[in-house]
């Protein structure tokens, strides 16, 4: 075995020296003497047969080789730390409650199934699920995780992407027989559009595009709801045309209860994220469930 691999602590000290800016500062942070730090760096350089630092009486800076190795060592140490944490977690019994929030349709159709599967794998895990089409503050509501269908802007949350979300236009056959089938997005101005709004606004913008063109429609309607479930129900009952998630209405389209209107047009893809609060260390149950969700979502959304 290469002698370097036997001295991981030398590599960790090397990284700490870079972060601290000097041997003395690194020694203070590590509760070691500067001499000890210097000896371990010298030993690492000898094992690698490379000078890591250019030293003078007043300054110290990384060599070009040192910069390259520092980058690779950082990546390697992250992987080693993750492997060590995984080994520790694998011996732990997953217990506790996971508090999670999600939009109503997504929670009802996808999250309900996934939490049930996870609980069957880990019977000592429990869930508290809060479904809402309103944005929930994870810190204020003491919630571990949230599924968000949006471009994220909150830097106080840690996010991992699950999938891409696409919305399509749908209407009931009865509605289209009565009012006609739109041939172009501009025709929607002549139709009853079912609009989503959490602010109670009766005027909403739909952004639609195909491979050649983009359109922005400012629509008004008598039928506005802050629940995706209600919009889907209204469209199924023949009240108008709705812009709904493709995964939500797929079964209704296959059953003939809804028709895909203007199939060449859709809104921009919106990412689906699983987000959590910033906390360390991450409880094993949270980490395992996030990894589980990502794996399951790839089955439900194979294009991602």
UniProtKB/TrEMBL annotation:
Family note: Belongs to the LysR transcriptional regulatory family.
Alphabetically ordered keywords of this record: DNA-binding, Transcription, Transcription regulation
Any single GO BP term: DNA-templated transcription
GO molecular function, one term: DNA-binding transcription factor activity
Pfam family of the protein (one): LysR_substrate
Keyword presence, Transcription regulation: yes
Name of this protein: LysR family transcriptional regulator
Source species: Acinetobacter qingfengensis
Source organism, top-level taxon: Bacteria
Residues covered by the HTH lysR-type domain: 7-63
Record has Cell wall biogenesis/degradation as a keyword: no
């Amino acid at each position: 075995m290469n002698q370097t691999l036997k001295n991981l602590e030398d590599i960790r000290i090397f990284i700490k020296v870079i972060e601290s800016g000097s041997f003395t500062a690194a020694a203070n942070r590590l509760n070691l003497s500067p001499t000890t730090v210097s000896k371990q760096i010298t030993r690492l350089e000898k094992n690698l047969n490379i000078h890591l630092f250019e030293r003078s009486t007043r300054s110290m800076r990384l060599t070009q080789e040192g910069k390259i190795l520092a980058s690779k060592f950082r990546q390697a140490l992250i992987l080693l730390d993750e492997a060590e944490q995984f080994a520790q977690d694998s011996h732990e019994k997953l217990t506790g409650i996971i508090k999670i929030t999600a939009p109503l349709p997504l929670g009802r159709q996808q999250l309900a199934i996934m939490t049930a599967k996870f609980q069957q794998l880990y019977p000592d895990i429990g869930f508290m699920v809060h479904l809402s089409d309103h944005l929930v503050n994870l810190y204020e509501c003491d919630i571990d995780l949230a599924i968000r269908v949006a471009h994220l802007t909150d830097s106080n949350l840690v996010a991992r992407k699950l999938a891409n979300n696409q919305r399509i236009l749908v209407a009931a056959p009865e509605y289209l027989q009565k009012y006609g089938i739109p041939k172009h997005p501009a025709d929607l101005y002549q139709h009853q559009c079912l609009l989503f709004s959490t602010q109670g606004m009766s005027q909403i913008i739909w952004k639609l595009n195909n491979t050649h063109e983009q359109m922005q429609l400012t629509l008004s309607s008598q039928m506005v709801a802050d629940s995706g479930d209600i919009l889907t129900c209204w469209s199924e009952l023949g009240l108008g045309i709705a812009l709904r998630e493709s995964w939500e209405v797929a079964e209704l389209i296959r059953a003939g209860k809804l028709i895909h209107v203007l199939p060449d047009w859709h809104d921009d893809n919106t990412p689906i994220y699983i987000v959590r609060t910033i906390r360390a260390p991450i409880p094993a149950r949270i980490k395992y469930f996030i990894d589980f969700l990502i794996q399951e979502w790839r089955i439900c959304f194979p294009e991602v």
